[in-house]
Design brief:
single chain, alpha+beta, 2 domains, 39% helix
């Protein structure tokens, strides 16, 4: 009888060891899956939080860009009068008029341009032309200025073969059957010169 019992002991012990190993492996797998699940949930939550943060930042930038303000007009500002004398506007005395429709800033860089100014067009922007010239529309907005509607469109344009990018801010104003268009140029999509551009347009008389 004792010999039989002695033979059973290693078998029972082996079985116990196998069970313990199986339980340990199961626990380790369970812990691994739990940690993995927590990590994935954490990454997802961080992704959602990052998306919300970026959305909030973009909204703040848009609100800043769309805020319509007028800066003080220096009494020494120059006055532009078109050759046909059908419209006029004021512009900073640090700017220089080149030709009939191009304005250079204090560094000699092109900063504004009449497109071509006052016309008899029925609408401000031709979407087919925008597509044809492969200009990317960054933003559009409408404001009321001197009881007239002003449509502003910001484009992203590849300036030269070197890939340099600039952002024309095109202002278009309707008045009766007339349309006035002027573009202001910047190297940033959200210009810190918006208030200056707005102020220049506010001096428009036609």
């Amino acid at each position: 009888m004792s010999k039989i019992d002695n033979k059973k002991i290693p078998t029972v012990l082996g079985t116990v060891i196998i069970v313990i190993i199986a339980i340990t492996a199961g626990v380790l797998v369970w812990k691994y899956e739990k940690i993995k699940s927590q990590d994935e949930a954490g990454m997802q939550n961080r992704g959602v939080e990052f998306s919300k943060l970026m959305e909030k930042k973009n909204n703040q930038q848009k609100e800043t860009a769309n805020k319509f303000e007028i800066v003080n007009i220096d009494k020494n500002w120059n006055k532009y009068i078109s050759n046909s004398k059908n419209f006029s506007l004021n512009y900073p005395n640090s700017w220089k008029l080149e030709g009939e429709n191009i304005f250079l800033d204090e560094n000699g860089k092109k900063i504004a341009e009449l497109l071509p100014g006052l016309t008899n067009e029925q609408k401000c922007f031709d979407n087919s032309k925008e597509s044809a010239t492969r200009m990317q529309v960054v933003s559009k907005q409408n404001i009321i200025l001197n009881k007239n509607e002003v449509e502003i469109i910001t484009l992203k344009v590849v300036r030269d073969s070197g890939g340099k990018i600039w952002f024309p801010n095109i202002y278009c104003m309707y008045k009766e059957n007339k349309v006035f268009k002027m573009s202001f140029y910047d190297e940033e999509s959200i210009s810190n010169k918006n208030n200056l551009f707005n102020t220049i347009i506010s001096t428009l008389d036609f």
